[in-house]
Write a structure and sequence with these properties.
Belongs to the major facilitator superfamily. Metabolite:H+ Symporter (MHS) family (TC 2.A.1.6) family. With about 425 residues, the chain is an all-alpha fold. Helix content is about 80%, strand content about 0%.
Length: about 425
C-alpha cells in the first residue's frame, strides 16, 4: 500500500498540460456515448417491449425486455478481461479506441433493427446480439478510460476521475430528454413506427467525433513510464484478489443508485400512473445534479478522502429510501417525483463521484485497467443489469409498490460493508 500512497500524493504539473484536458474530453465523450445507449434502451423499455418482445401480458413483455437488457451484462466481465487486459498490455489509447468502435456498431444495429412484426424472431435475436456487443464494449470502457484520466494527474485522482461520473450524468439528461421530447411531441403510432429510433441515430453522431479524438491522443504519462505486465489478469488473481473483492463491493451502491434513476420513468408510469413526459422530466433533474456536482465531490474527495462521502451516502440511502418512496406512493405528483429524484441524484453523486478514485487507489498502474474494469463490471453485472427486471418482478410478486426499496436498501448495506473494508484493510484516504 505504501507504493500506492506515494503515487497518489506526489504532486506534478500534469493537470496543467493541455493533454490532461484532452484526456478528460476523450474519456467523457466515449463514456457518455456508452451510457447514453445503455440508458436509452432502458428509457425506451416500454416501447421496445411492445415492438420486439410482444406477449399477451404487458408485464411479461417488460420482464423479457429488461432480461434482454440484463443479458448483455454477462458480457461485461468478458469485455473487462479482454479490453482491460489489452489496455494494461498495449496501452489505454488502443483500448479506448477499440471500445468506442464496438459501441458504435452495437448502437447502429439497434437503430436499424426491423421489428418483430416485420421479421419475426430474428428481431429480438438481433436486439440481443446488439446488446451483447454493447455489453462487451462497456466492460472495458470504464476501467480503461478512468485509468487514462487518473494517470494524467495522479495527485488529483478524485477530481479528474469524477468527470467519468459527470459524463454519465450528461447521458442521463440526454436519454431522459429524448424520452420526454418523443413522448410529448409524437403520437403513440409515430413513436412506435419510427420515433424511438431517432435517439439511437443521434448517439451515432457522437461516436465518430469520439473515435477521432481517441485515435489522436497521446498515451497516459504514468502508464508510459511504468513497466507494463504481460499477464495483468494472472497478477490480479494471484496477489490482488482482496482488492478485487473490495473494489467490486464498493461499486454496488453506485450501480444500484444509477439504475434506480434509470428505472424511475418505468416505475412512475406503471406504478404511479403518471405520464411519460412527467417521469422523464423528473429524471433530467437527477442527471443534472450528477453532471454539475460530480467534479465538486471529486475535488472534495481529494481533500477529505473517498470513504467519508461513500459511507454517508450509503447510510442515507438505507435511512431515507423507504420513507421517500412511501411518501411518493401515497402522494404521486410531478413535484413530489421531482423531489424524490433530486434526493436520489444528490446521494448518487455523493457516492459515485468518489468511487472511481478509490478504485484507482486500490490497483497499481500495471494492473489498473484490468482491476478496475473487473471490479466495476462484476458489480454492474450482478446488481445493475437485472435491476429493472428484479424490481419489476419484486413488485409483481409482492403486489407492493414499495418493493423497489428492498433492492436499494440491500445494495446500500453491502456497500457500507465494502467501504468500511476498503478504509480498514487498505488504509485509503
Amino acid at each position: 500500500m505504501s507504493s500506492i500512497a506515494s503515487r497518489s500524493t506526489v504532486a506534478t504539473p500534469l493537470e496543467q498540460h493541455p493533454q490532461t484536458w484532452r484526456a478528460v474530453i476523450s474519456s467523457s465523450i466515449g463514456n457518455a456515448l456508452e451510457w447514453f445507449d445503455v440508458l436509452l434502451y432502458s428509457a425506451m423499455a416500454v416501447t421496445i417491449a411492445k415492438l420486439f418482445f410482444p406477449t399477451a401480458n404487458q408485464t411479461v413483455s417488460l420482464l423479457i425486455t429488461f432480461a434482454t437488457f440484463g443479458v448483455s451484462f454477462f458480457m461485461r466481465p468478458l469485455g473487462a478481461v479482454v479490453i482491460g487486459a489489452y489496455s494494461d498490455r498495449v496501452g489505454r489509447k488502443a483500448a479506448l479506441t477499440l471500445s468506442i468502435l464496438l459501441m458504435m456498431i452495437g448502437t447502429l444495429l439497434i437503430a436499424i433493427m426491423p421489428t418483430y412484426a416485420q421479421i419475426g424472431l430474428w428481431a429480438p435475436a438481433g436486439i440481443v446480439l446488439a446488446r451483447l456487443l454493447q455489453g462487451f464494449s462497456a466492460g472495458g470502457e470504464f476501467g480503461s478510460s478512468t485509468a487514462f484520466l487518473v494517470e494524467h494527474a495522479p495527485h488529483r485522482r478524485g477530481f479528474f476521475s469524477s468527470w467519468q461520473v459527470a459524463s454519465q450524468g450528461l447521458s442521463i439528461v440526454l436519454a431522459a430528454l429524448a424520452g420526454a421530447l418523443l413522448s410529448s411531441q409524437l403520437s403513440t403510432e409515430q413513436l412506435e413506427s419510427w420515433g424511438w429510433r431517432l435517439p439511437f441515430f443521434f448517439g451515432l453522431l457522437i461516436g465518430p467525433a469520439g473515435y477521432y479524438i481517441r485515435k489522436n491522443l497521446e498515451e497516459s504519462p504514468e502508464f508510459a513510464q511504468a513497466d507494463a505486465t504481460r499477464t495483468p489478469l494472472r497478477d490480479i488473481m494471484s496477489s490482488q484478489k482482496m482488492q478485487l473483492l473490495i473494489g467490486s463491493g464498493s461499486v454496488i451502491m453506485a450501480t444500484v443508485s444509477v439504475y434506480l434513476v434509470v428505472y424511475m420513468p418505468t416505475y412512475a408510469v406503471k406504478q404511479l400512473g403518471m405520464t411519460s413526459t412527467a417521469s422523464f422530466s423528473a429524471t433530467i433533474l437527477a442527471g443534472l445534479i450528477m453532471l454539475l456536482f460530480s467534479p465538486v465531490v471529486g475535488q472534495l474527495s481529494d481533500k477529505y478522502g473517498r470513504t467519508p462521502f461513500m459511507l454517508a451516502s450509503s447510510i442515507l440511502f438505507v435511512v431515507l429510501t423507504y420513507p421517500l418512496f412511501s411518501w411518493l406512493s401515497f402522494n404521486p405528483s410531478f413535484v413530489n417525483l421531482l423531489l424524490v429524484q433530486g434526493v436520489i441524484g444528490l446521494l448518487m453523486t455523493m457516492y459515485f463521484a468518489s468511487m472511481p478514485a478509490l478504485l484507482s487507489d486500490i490497483f497499481p498502474v500495471q494492473t489498473r485497467g484490468t482491476g478496475m474494469s473487473l471490479s466495476y463490471n462484476i458489480a454492474v453485472m450482478i446488481f445493475g443489469g437485472f435491476a429493472g427486471m428484479t424490481i419489476t418482478w419484486l413488485i409483481a410478486v409482492t403486489d407492493n409498490k414499495l418493493a423497489v426499496t428492498f433492492y436499494v436498501i440491500g445494495g446500500a448495506l453491502l456497500s457500507v460493508i465494502a467501504t468500511l473494508a476498503a478504509r480498514y484493510k487498505l488504509r485509503l484516504r
